[in-house]
Amino acid sequence: MSFDLNFIGILIGAIMASSVPLILAASGELITERSGVLNLGVEGMMIIGAISGFALMVVTDNLFFAVIGSMLSGLILSLIFGLLTQSLLTNHVATGLALTIFGIGMSAMIGKNFVGIPGKEFPLLFLNFKESIPFLGPIFFGHSIILYFAFGLPFLTNYFLKKTKTGLIIRAVGDSPTSASNQGINVTLVRYSCILYGGAMCGLAGAYLSLIYTPQWIENMTGGRGWIALALVVFATWSPIKVLIGALIFGGITILQLHMQAVGLRIPVQLLSALPYIMTIIVLVVISRDSRKIKLNTPTSLGQIFYKEK
Amino acid sequence: MYKLFLRSLISVLFMLGFSLNANAEFKVGFVYVGPTGDHGWTYQHHEGRNAVEALGIKTTYVESVPEGADAERVIRQLAQSGHDLIFTTSFGYMDPTNKVAKDFPNVKFEHATGYKREHSNVSTYSARFYEGRTLLGHMAGKMTKTNTIGYIASFPIPEVIRGINAMTLAAQKVNPDIKTKIVWVFTWYDPGKESEAAQALIDQGADIIMQHTDSTAPVQVAEKAGVWSFGQASDMQRFAPKSILTSIIDDWAPYYVERSIAARDGTWKQQDTWHGLKEGMVAMAPYNSAMGSDLVKEVEQLQKDLASGKVHSFTGPIYDQKGNILVAEGAVADDGMLAGMNVYVKGVEGDIPQ
Q1: Which of A40, A120, B135, B250 to pair with B172, CA 20 to 30 A apart?
Q2: What part of A 240-259 touches B (C-beta under 8 Å)?
Q3: pTM of the model
């Protein structure tokens, strides 16, 4: 293994790229969950975003439309979830699971005609800096705009939840919908918005996979990343910054263990393969062991059905 | 009492209807491990199914069935719903297939790439993919500049280890300095993970990427990085037109057609099939002219020799990693040894995950 600085830079860049879908989907789901809604349909919304993005790229030959379209499709799917859970008051868990199954099936059906079409080159920013600056170049430059957005998102989310009035309203709805409702807040409307936002972010995460990360459409291409994102939100105890850390650790160890194998380190491969999951959980548990803070961040009414008595 | 009677009457009628329906028509079922759109392993099995369907035989398929408890449920379901012949197309379906076969002696089962035939209604079949790997090894040995071949492996089963060994032996023959670097991804199909593995191997100096996984992601990574690659299971050339030197193609269609007709006509017998280049179950996609016409000719000749049996992929002397002799000079490995292969040959780096 060559241990020169530039190589490490390239490695870190690759780790960042691999964690983007997790950050996007988990940040979206975090907002949804903070409003008290548990949407297990992350995987389904991601895969629908992936196929819509790819299909629109092929049909319109325009990456901008593709990205917007993927967000819209994630949003539409989450709207179905919203209608069922918020207006028809169905169970969150069951509806979310159904949404995932629906999304996977639907995407495979739409995708039939898009298998085997090579993707389009997605523009990467500051490519000349990436090559001219050693070490820092490959870390900070030569990425797609979505990556920069994804890395800013947890900080924005954190600020939004803690410092803005809307953020406070979302948290209030998540903690005690009844009290919030008594204060004159339209709980259903707030929850709808959060669900739709989460759906759009999941769609974007899917598009990142099909347009940038592995530019092609293949069935089931999200490969369970939606579930990882869901788990990240919980293990990060609903804190956006910890979601970012968790996503980086998960992406980082996934890639590092492959490198360790390629180098031929004599560590049991099964252990290496399990390492991303183990390490992510350990680190997140350790950094968020303050039970007072956990209580502060946990949306108390998560997954509970709310209806206003009239 | 009345209710109980009614209930049992209904269930008897139901079962009767079921079995009548079952006897009505000859049906063939397929169980796939991946989606039919993977453009690799499952895609090729699905092409085989299409060939059976084209004969006018009714077929059913279930895709993306995980290897494990789900598999047994799906196979049982197919057997119960009146399928006369069931193809289970992944190694991990071995035990479930035999288990279900015991309960359905009148249904015929065909399990791909396995070795257990515990009941007389279970046949196994596989292809000698390792012959294709020998050709890849020859090309890889000649084309590599860094003398490092990157290999993305799925699960540590004989099938995969055999491929790694066949490739390494052939590559060593033309280039004694080559090293095979292996990354185990423990999945047959995860485009993201496969592409990360390909990238890791390229970062570690591999300029040839080979895969024993099913998606087209690795060849696309190779194309982007400007290194050579080989397609797996079906012709993946259009995913990486510059990078792919050739693909190993699995052609199941003739076998599926033959066995379906045999089952329909009542001539089906238990057997163990292991076909290769000779019978056409393993085929090679067109060779990339970028490797030069001399090498193309060489490989074409080697392909003929492998098909005719003049050359065998595992001809001695073959040593394991510690230098112990596995196959004596001049001898060839027999099918029993090939089927149970569980050690690396000399020149492969790392250990087999246990």
Answers
A1: B250
A2: 254-255, 258-259
A3: 0.80
